[in-house]
Amino acid sequence: MNTPSQEVYRFDSAGSLLQTSLPFPRRQGKVRDVYDLGDCLLIVSTDRISAFDYILPSGIPGKGALLTTMSQFWFDAVDRGEIGGRLATAGTPLQHHLISTDVPKRVADRVDTEPLEGRIMVVRKAEVVPFECVVRGYLEGSGWQAYQDSGEICGVALPPGLQQCEQLASPIFTPATKAEEGHDENVPIDVMIEQLGLETAEQLRSTSLIVYEDAAQIAARQGVLIADTKFEFGVCDGKLILIDEVLTPDSSRFWAADEYEPGRAQRSFDKQFVREWLQNSQWDRNSPPPPLPEDIVAKTAARYREGAERLQAGTA
C-alpha cells in the first residue's frame, strides 16, 4: 500500500518541493535527500535553496528538476567521451555514479512518484573523498578575495594586476575541505596530499582539470562561460568516480559569453538574487532566515532556467 502523499512530500505556497520522507533510510543535505536502497542510492533534488550556510524557508519552483537535468546532460557527455576522453586514451577512463533517472519500482510500489519525476538519480554507492575539487578558470568569489589579500589562491601564485572576473592564463585547481557544518575551507593541495597521498591527490587534480576544460569547451559553443566549479569524487570498486551533482548552477558559476566584461561582477545564472536580497534585508545571519518575497523567488527561478536553456540550446 502506498503511503499518503501528504505524509511523504511537503511543498511551500509556490509549489516548491521542500521535503521528502520516503520509507527508506535517509540522510538530508542542504538541497538533496539521499535514500539508501541497499544496493544503490536514490538522490532526490528538492527545490530547497541555501545561502550563507542556512536553508531558506522558501524554495525555488522547478529547481531540483533543473539540477537533475543538467547533471544528466554532463554525465551523458562523459558517456559519449566528450568529457574525459583523454583519460580513456591514457587507460584510465572517467567513470561516474549515475545509473538511471527513472524512479525504481521498489519506490513506486511504496509511494506516489509523481513529485519525484524528473528530479531523481539512482546512483552507485561510493566512499566519498573528503575534499571538494574546485577548478577556477576566472577570478571571482573567494578566489578573487584571496587574490586581493595575498596575490594567490590556495598556494597558487598568480600574476599581479589581474582584474575581477578576469580569465586566468590556464585553469587552476584549488581544493577545499568538506565541512559538516559551516563553510568549506580552501586549502593548498599539500593538505590533500598529506591526507590522501600524492598519487590520489594528483589523480584528483588532473582529472578535475580535464573535466573542467572539456566541459568549458562544450559550454563555450553554447555561448556560456564556466567561471569555476567544484567536483566531488568517490571510490567505488577501488576506482575514483565522479559523484554528486556536476556542473550545475549550485556548484558552478555560469556567465553569458556575450555579456562578459572583466573588471566587474558578472550576471550569473544562479542564486545571486537571493544573496543580494538577504544582504540588503534586516536579517542578522544568526537567526532563522526570513521567507523570500515572491518576486525574488520568480527572478531566481528564471535565472536558473535561462542558464540551463542557454547551455542546452540545440543539443536535444
Automatic annotation (TrEMBL):
It comes from the Bacteria. GO terms for biological process: 'de novo' IMP biosynthetic process. Transmembrane segments: none annotated. Keywords: ATP-binding, Ligase, Nucleotide-binding, Purine biosynthesis. It catalyses: 5-amino-1-(5-phospho-D-ribosyl)imidazole-4-carboxylate + L-aspartate + ATP = (2S)-2-[5-amino-1-(5-phospho-beta-D-ribosyl)imidazole-4-carboxamido]succinate + ADP + phosphate + 2 H(+). Residues 28-287 form the SAICAR synthetase/ADE2 N-terminal domain. The keyword Ligase applies. One of its GO terms (cellular component) is cytoplasm. Its EC number is 6.3.2.6. PROSITE patterns: SAICAR_SYNTHETASE_1, SAICAR_SYNTHETASE_2. GO terms for molecular function: ATP binding; phosphoribosylaminoimidazolesuccinocarboxamide synthase activity. Pathway: Purine metabolism; IMP biosynthesis via de novo pathway; 5-amino-1-(5-phospho-D-ribosyl)imidazole-4-carboxamide from 5-amino-1-(5-phospho-D-ribosyl)imidazole-4-carboxylate: step 1/2. The keyword Heme does not apply. Belongs to the SAICAR synthetase family. This is Phosphoribosylaminoimidazole-succinocarboxamide synthase. It comes from Allorhodopirellula solitaria.
